[in-house]
Specification:
By secondary structure, this protein is an alpha/beta fold. The chain has ten helices and nine strands. Strands 5-4-3-2-1-9 form a six-stranded parallel beta sheet. The chain has a three-stranded parallel beta sheet with strand order 6-7-8. Strand 1, helix 2 and strand 2 form a beta-alpha-beta unit.
Length: 215
């Protein structure tokens, strides 16, 4: 089922989950050297990307130092494709009880997407590794604080709307990580092949949460 095991040590060294959506295997591979060089270790490839199984399998094989996972996993069919390809962790945009419980039973880290306190608590009670608060765009930092006030044992990973301008605030509010897509992977830099500036951008993002990184 799994080629490698998810490394929590690597995750804790930089608890940012980079999300790549819609890129080809070739495009993804061009980004990875800069990603790893700057100290990023967890990468999510969404299921609605072209040849997603090929991308996940290639990354898992060529970059054993990475935590390689699948995102936008909504069904058991999606889950099977992701795991067969070598995904080491699973991210969903919604709550699917069957998907969550299968991952928990097989010791596969699962970050299910939830929005309301009830959904968040339900996902956590089923064994989620952390609950992806999605979309966090409109909810913002205060929402994380408000949820964690009564539900302080739950690990939250806001995704959507997290940027260099506010990522530190999310961690200060109690988030254990954050998922970033276009805010981390600048489309213009990638399109132009400007990996030098992309590296600087990665470093800036990591520096924003340096006080929360467990070395």
């Amino acid at each position: 089922m799994q080629n490698n095991i998810f490394s929590w040590d690597k995750y804790n060294q930089n608890p940012i989950v980079g999300i790549l959506r819609g890129l080809t295997t070739e495009e993804v591979l061009k980004i990875m050297p800069s990603y790893i060089k700057t100290g990023f270790y967890t990468i999510e490839i969404t299921m609605n990307s072209p040849k997603v199984a090929e991308t996940i399998a290639t990354l898992a094989k060529e970059y054993p130092e990475l935590n390689v996972g699948a995102g936008t996993v909504c069904t058991m069919e999606d889950l099977k494709i992701a795991l067969d390809a070598g995904s080491q962790f699973i991210v969903t945009p919604i709550i699917n009880e069957e998907v969550i419980k299968h991952c928990v039973a097989n010791n596969i880290p699962i970050f299910p997407g939830a929005y309301t306190p009830t959904e968040i608590y339900k996902a956590w009670s089923w064994g989620a590794s952390a609950v992806k608060v999605f979309p966090a765009t409109q909810l913002g930092v205060q929402y994380i604080k408000d949820v964690l006030a009564p539900l302080n044992e739950i690990k939250l990973l806001p995704t959507g709307g997290v940027s260099a301008d506010n990522i530190k605030s999310f961690f200060e509010a109690g988030a254990v990580g954050a998922g970033l897509a276009s805010a981390l992977f600048d489309k213009k830099m990638i399109r132009e092949g400007n990996y030098a500036d992309l590296e600087k951008h990665f470093i800036k993002m990591k520096n924003e949460i340096k006080d929360f990184i467990k070395e």
